[in-house]
Write a structure and sequence with these properties.
The structure is a homotrimer.
Chain A (H helix, E strand, L loop, with lengths): L4 E6 L7 H12 L4 E6 L7 H12 L7 E5 L10 E6 L2 E6 L5 H6 L4 E5 L2 H7 L8 H14 L7 E4 L11 E2 L5 E9 L5 E6 H5 L7 E6 L11 E3 L2 E2 L10 E5 L4 E6 L4 H5 L6 E6 L7
Parallel strand pairs in A: 1-2, 1-3, 3-5, 13-14
Antiparallel strand pairs in A: 4-5, 4-6, 6-7, 8-9, 9-10, 9-16, 10-15, 11-12, 11-16, 14-15
Helix pairs in contact in A: 1-5
Chain lengths: 283, 283, 283
């Protein structure tokens, strides 16, 4: 059953009417659509952040939802646009890495190139080289919400993936290497290390968490030890740092009622290392 | 008659999809809901500001509206959640002081603890310790909008109130003591002194308004005299300060086409004192 | 056919519930309205920017849309409110220059003074001198969306126009003089020079573009030559400046994946000059 929901995610900000104009186009094509803003304040051109934010919303929208994502530094160049999905949910986004986290967490997702000829011919001489959100993505989302997928789907393709969206687990299963995906409004720093990564190890309680910089962090000596995993903010005092599994299932570095990003000087793409300690059994 | 409106007020910001995810949950449970954003840009964890902003909207929404407020620094700790209301309007919020201004202005409001067991069992292993907006508040709001209050209402309780949300009037009725509740986008500084406070005095025209700091302001000498009450911004020149009764009925310190907060160095919780001057009658 | 869409454009920001309260008023009067945010983050009192942003959205909303614009530094003074429109679209805005770009691009627009007596009598003692968005504009927009224009339309008037919203073309057609209308989220600087201005000249390829400051730029020597017109961002390297016709048809100064405003030090109202070079034909 189609819910007729379009969930919009862009880096268009809110100083301009860019997102509002997409809504005007959508309602012009189908006045009964429900239009929901995920965010328009993704840092300009930050594809990794957009990929994470998209993932956090994916499971919480009803079947039939069309996720329309426009974080698109390559607009007007030759980049492809993706249309894909699974389980009745549809994603339309530039093929620039935005699909990374949805692909990582939902292996069943399939993607196709979006056929844009029909949409371009509709836009005619109004087609802009800088605002495909208005001229391509919004009309495509309206068609997709109306079930007109045949008009839109080209050849099946493998979407571009960003390596920072994944973790690297050592062969001897002694460590996980990841990076900072996203810094949220509260200054919480979300890493690419998922609860499922931790579950691969037998002793998640025996883990030491280190923060490296994106620059150079080969030796342990340059790393900063982070606090051990907690379940609740309230397990530490006000202003104290902690690590916990955040609401989207990823390891998060936080400060209770404070900003971990500011207090610990963390940036997107900084490295995170988890080391599992072999403890001698005393039994 | 139920309007099926959910009015959302949070400090989730717009960099993330937190507010959008709540909407996904709400529409999953009831696709016909109307979802309105009051604000998601309340300063992080600023309960006093959230309480004021909630009050400004309360009277202007139709009966049946559910106000769902998530400014919740105590998330995951033992804090209770409130469900309450009056006149067909419902409020769901953490019991941390957010109810203060609605309670002050609407004495008929009644509150109950929100029963969360049913909601927690629905969320199952997805229940997060950090995002009750998604897992508890949004589902509760959907149930409340659908009239399922019996499932949600626990024991009646008195909500936590913040003293800064109220005024203290001297016994001899010579002065009112209040504080800064909120600074709005324009830099207007809204105080806790309401038109109704002023109406208790016989000569509201004979009032002197002083600004103290939240720190120490025992003697009048440390206070700063503010301009007398005006009716319109246009009664003073561009860039000049004034005081007036703002659109929500509270005394406001403003600068015409400027920021009173910046120009006068005012912060939330700074003190405000009104002194009523006994003038000799000449009749 | 009426779409029942209200498109809202204000400088109310998102720290407060001002925009949300307008929506509460609108839904109280007509629960079936569709409410779309164009922007609430217009720089405080920046009428020129609001006029431009309004124009960018105008053509992309369906007939029947009511554009309700509240960027209103003169609220509470004697300024008039406009109601006008064309082609089934309606604009309600203060008569302070906001209509400039719609009027420039759509000569068929007609405007009337908004009759506020009925709305003021409805608001009664709740009528605020500082929040006409809630007490006048929102109720007027609900009436307009419901087709009750007779109640609202006063005498026909010519709206106030801002000279910066227009261009001045030299008599000998050797140059166009314009200014910066708006700086968008990405730092793109949109000028008042429209594609239609360029089309008046025979050789749009032979144009040199100069940036002057709003202060003093009488002689060419004080001006800064800008790069020649391109079609796509991707025609220049990352971090390099370019000029192009933006998505709303206006000449735009941009930096690929960067901020032209920051990199080139451009402000709203800075001057832009285009000089057309007479090149000798070699045929």
């Amino acid at each position: 059953m189609k819910a007729g929901i379009i969930a919009l995610l862009t880096d268009f900000g809110t100083r301009d009417a860019y997102a509002g104009i997409m809504k005007g186009v959508l309602l012009s094509l189908n006045p009964s659509l429900k239009l929901i803003d995920l965010s328009h304040d993704i840092d300009c051109h930050n594809i990794l952040s957009a990929s994470y934010v998209l993932h956090t919303a994916w499971d919480y929208f009803p079947n039939g939802t069309v996720f329309c994502v426009v974080v698109d530094p390559g607009v007007g160049s030759g980049r492809s646009i993706l249309i894909g999905g699974a389980g009745g949910k549809i994603l339309i986004a530039p093929d620039n890495g935005i699909a990374s986290l949805p692909v990582r967490m939902h292996r069943e997702l399939k993607f196709y190139t979006l056929k844009t000829e029909y949409l371009e011919s509709k836009a005619k001489n109004r087609l802009s080289s800088t605002f495909h959100g208005r001229d391509i993505f919004a009309p495509a989302a309206a068609l997709a919400a109306g079930g007109k997928l045949v008009k839109l789907k080209g050849a099946e393709i493998k979407p571009m993936l960003l390596k920072e969206a994944f973790t690297r687990i050592d062969k001897d299963r002694s460590s996980i290497n990841g990076s900072i995906l996203h810094i949220d409004r509260f200054g919480n720093c979300i890493t690419s290390v998922h609860r499922q990564d931790l579950n691969l190890f037998h002793r998640p309680d025996g883990v030491e968490i280190y923060l490296g910089s994106a620059a150079a962090s080969a030796s342990h000596k340059q790393e900063k030890r982070l606090p051990d995993l907690k379940k609740h903010y309230s397990e530490v005092g006000l202003g104290k740092p902690l690590t916990l599994i955040g609401s989207a299932g990823f390891l998060e570095i936080a400060v209770r009622e404070g900003s971990a990003a500011v207090q610990l000087g963390i940036n997107v793409k900084d490295e995170v290392h988890l080391h599992f300690i072999e403890r001698k059994r005393t039994s």
